[in-house]
C-alpha cells in the first residue's frame, strides 16, 4: 500500500513540475477613482484590447492614458518598476460617448518625444507630441511639455476619417503610426512614419476590408452573414513585410502587395491561415505576438460550429459560446490552431503575451489569465488567475503593456452601471514560467 502511494505521489509531483506556467500579482494600483464610464459597442473607452498603447513602458518610465469622469484626457507617468504615478491633464475633452475613441501613446526613440493620438472613430484624429527627450529625461510631468492639440500629425494631413490609431516602433527605431481610413466594412489600413522630427505618409497597405499582419476581413454587406445581427468578419489572414511596411509577402514568401500602389485585398492569394465563414461571430482587432524564433502567435475568438452554425446575435451568443483559439506558425511553416478550453463569457477580446521561454499567457476579459507551456506544445491550458474570483470587479475587456512583459502591466476599469464613473486600475503580474 505504501509503495503504491509513493508512486502516485511521485507521478503527481512530475505532473505539477511540468504544468502550465503561473503568474503572481506584484501590485494593483488605483490610477483614477473616477474614470469616465459608458458602454458602447460592448466596450469602454479607457480600456480596449486593440489600444496600442494605453499603457506603455519606455526605458525607465511607464505611461498610462485615460479619460477622467469629465472626459478630460489624462496622462500618467511612473518610474519603473514601482514609482508613484504622476498625472497631467491634456487640454482635450472626449468628443463623443463612443468606445472607439481611445487614447494611444507612442515614443519616438530618435528624439525621446512622447506622442499621443486620440478621440477618433471615422473622424479627425487629435494629436500632440511632447518636447524632445521628455521620455528619457524624466523632466517635470506637466501639460506645458506637450504641443497644442492638432488634427494633423505635425504637418502631415492624414484626412478626416481615422480609426484605430496605433503607434509601433520599428526594428530600426523609427516610430510608425498605423491607422484605418474610411469606415468599417470599407476601410483601408494606412501607415505613416516619423523620422528626423517629421511625419511622412507611407501609404495604404491593405484595402477593401480590414487587414493586419494578422487580421480578418469585414464585409460591409450584411448579406454575407446568416443573420443581420451577426458579425460580417470572416477568415483569419497573415502576411508580413521585411521592409518596414513597403512590400508584403504571404507565409509562403510570395510577394502579394506594395503599400501605396497595390494594396492587399480580399482576393489576394495565399493569405488565409484559418478559413471561417461570416456566421461565427469572429472578432476583429484581437491580439498577436512573436516568439523568440520570430514566428507569429495569434489569438482569435469565435463560436465553434458545434454550438451553432449561425450566430444570430453576436452580442448574446459570443458571451454564451465563444472560445479563444491559439493560432501559430509551427517550425515547418504551417499554421496550427488550438482551441483554448474556456468560455470567454464576454463579447470582448483577449490579449496574448509570451515570456522569454515562449510560454503563452492569455489575459481574457475580466482579467482571467490562462496559460500554456511551450514544453507541452502549447496544449496544457490552465486557468492560473481569475479576476472574478479574486474580486477585481473588472469591466470585461482589458489592455496591457506590450513593451514590458516581465512583469506585465494590465490596465483595467472596474465595472459600473449607466454613466457612473469607476476606478481605472493597473495590475502587474510576474510571469513565473
Ligand atoms: C472640458 O470639459 C469641462 C467640463 O466637463 C470644461 O470645464 C472644460 O473647459 C473643457 N475643456 C476643453 C479643453 O474643452
Ligand atoms: C507541421 O507541424 C505541426 C506542429 O508540429 C504539425 O501538427 C503538422 O502536421 C506539420 N505539418 C506538416 C505538413 O508536416
Ligand atoms: C472565473 O470565475 C468565474 C466566477 O466563479 C467563473 O464563472 C468563470 O468561469 C471563471 N473563468 C475561468 C476561465 O475559469
TrEMBL record:
It comes from Mycena pura. It comes from the Eukaryota. Keywords: Signal. Residues 1-18 form the signal peptide. This is Uncharacterized protein. Pfam families: BNR_4.
